[in-house]
Amino acid sequence: MDSTNAYDVIVVGGGVIGCAVARELAPDHDVLVLEAGSAGGEASPKASGLMAIVADLPEYPAAARHALEFFKSYDGTGQFEFTSRSAIHLVTAEEESWGREHAATKAAQGFDVTYLTAAEIENRYPGALVLDQFVGGVEFSQSGWLDPYTYTMTLKSEAEDEGVRYETGTEVTDIVIEDGSVTGVRVEGATIAADHVVCATGWRTRELLSEFVEVPVRPFRWQTVNLEVGREFGEEFPICWDRQSRMYWRPEHNGDLHVGGGTYFVEDSGDVRSTITESFRNAVATTIGERVQNIEDARFKSEDCCPTGDAATPDDHPIIDAPDGAPDGLVVAITGPVGGIMCSPFVSTAVRSIVTEETAPFPVEPFSLDRFEDLSAEFECDYVTGLQAPQR
Ligand SMILES: Cc1cc2nc3c(=O)[nH]c(=O)nc-3n(C[C@H](O)[C@H](O)[C@H](O)COP(=O)(O)OP(=O)(O)OC[C@H]3O[C@@H](n4cnc5c(N)ncnc54)[C@H](O)[C@@H]3O)c2cc1C
């Protein structure tokens, strides 16, 4: 490890957020990314890659629009491919008024969102879904998915082309402060100097920064399975989200059905896991055939989850801030449970605006830490544990 260089910015964490931040800053900053594990991050490579609900960030339509536009324009960069596909949030009779209102609100914000009745869904997506339990759905036409590992590696490779250095297998043990300002980080007994330190460290941010600032974040797990099915999914088969089962699903390019959800808090921080829970396996087995047509012969092919966890925040939204009271030059970049892949374009743009003091193309203040009165990690959030997935 070279401890003599001084950098404009050290990014701690080489997941999708760290890589997106490094790429944004690369053209006009000397940037070093320090990653404790391997390139691509911990939660990031495991993701389903959906950006189905980015348009749902209720208060932040401009940030959501920024993310949507980024993915479309980034399609074709290096190995990165964005699959455009509509997404439907299925709604039950009790949820119908929410669904209609939500679609109208999003449409008024300029998103391509429509409320469809069950008959309209069947008409538009014939042979796709079993709709007995639903009266309709909110359709987002601007959605899609991507392969999160390829995406992260494309961001990394672009950052490296612009001169960013990556050190993997390198844990930052301390942030170094002098006279109230960040001067660098400590790794393996060495100190590396920098004017800014961006913590893209997910749920671990709380512990890393505990001396300087309290960050309300706690780990939770997503779970996914891939099902091998006998049927084919056409080019139109939609991404779906179902609040009743707390599951989402989409086709894979190889013909499998990818199913995710089953979120739960990790009570033992640092616990590492690679298998899904029995309850999620059972939920998939009993539910998915009641949602997707002609998959009676489905069989479990593979499963995955966050090894240690993704970062939950008390209100589900990102924390992107140089917090008041924290040392100058310290920036926090945490996505919250709405999904770091889909949030990465605006998280990284917001971080850039904080570091450079440029104006971001959307309001950054809504992501500041001081929106929380309680900074403890004792919070619950519906997004993770609710009996139903949240109404977004
Ligand atoms: C199964 C699953 C499905 C998902 N589905 C979606 C989806 O469909 N859409 C979506 O948008 N999101 C989804 N997500 C969530 C998304 O993957 C995460 O929100 C996102 O990857 C978080 O990115 P990150 O860079 O903050 O975290 P990570 O990828 O976890 O990266 C943080 C990195 O920081 C490093 N680090 C921590 N502390 C230190 C330290 N002290 N020194 C050095 N390095 C450190 C860690 O090693 C880690 O690599 C899913 C996640 C999973 C697991």
Automatic annotation (TrEMBL):
PANTHER family: SARCOSINE DEHYDROGENASE-RELATED. InterPro entries: FAD-dep_OxRdtase, FAD/NAD-bd_sf. Keywords: Oxidoreductase. This is NAD(P)/FAD-dependent oxidoreductase. Residues 8-347 form the FAD dependent oxidoreductase domain. Its EC number is 1.-.-.-. One of its GO terms (molecular function) is oxidoreductase activity. It comes from Natribaculum luteum.
